Amino acid sequence: MTAYELTQKQIQQEPKTWLVTGAAGFIGSNLVESLLRLNQKVIGLDNFALGYPRNLHQVQELVGPKCWAAYQFIEGDIRDLDTCRRAIKGVDYVLHHAAMGSVPGSVADPLLANACNVTGCLNVLIAAKDEKVRRFVYATSSAVYGDDAPMPIVEDKIGRPLSPYAANKLTNELYAYTFARCYGLQTVGLRYFNVFGPRQDPKGAYAAVIPRWIESMIKNQPFYIYGDGETTRDFCYVANVVQANILAATSSKTEALNEAYNVAISEKTSLNQLYQLLKRGLEPDYPHLQTVAPIYQDFRPGDVRHSQASIAKIKNLLGFEPTHTLANGLSAALGWYKKNLV
Predict the structure, then answer these.
(1) Catalytic residue at 275?
(2) CA-atom Rg of the chain in angstroms
């Protein structure tokens, strides 16, 4: 039995209360779904700036009325401290995912990015500290590594941030560490590498290349590769992210706390390779893709050139083992994409 399988069994036997901020978003709604399936009580907080009611409606349909009865939703903004306090009342574990998750958006509006990503995170940290929650798990990003990290990227080699978004996430890590030192709040940061899966918005900015391309390819619309297509990413299926969150929240290892971890599969895939994978997966149902090709444009400001994570640390300290590679993650998600993006 894997560490994750054992953890799922244990929390089902002793249900707790979880707060998921950004609950109506892509990753947040997947966390809500998985926790409800594990018979947990879940409180969701979202202001619908980037999340959608339809994501929660899909979760409701998938988990059924019995599990859904354990869910409470609060519509509100993490930039308001009182809202954070109200949402976190009686919570055991916090999974903080509300954010302005966009490199280009942060470049265009750094003040808004800071308000959402830094002030918002600080508010949730303060509320978690005052409520004395068991654990504060928060989403950070591979963007904190900048463009100088050797491959595969290890957690203790931080480069210079290339965007306000990256600076925001690095600031969150510093705040979390400080709250652990000053107040004894147990924190774990999860540095996500290009997550994909069901309920990811093709119109959104967060690592949305996969649903955006799929939508365009299905509809026979132009789609774009920024640069020469040899830019690489470590694409991670959302089920792996759910696993990392649950392990991070419940680990009993003292040495695993107040750390930041890469969450990825440790595979480097170029955008050109990704395009070929998607084409092969979609072509049987959409024959027009035999003659379709991407349009190449200039590199985007703030984007890193290459990205591949080492996951040795999260394996050793949290027992993380990816259940999905890029290929079988795409196989698992393509049905949802075809149904929902057409």
Answers:
(1) no
(2) 19
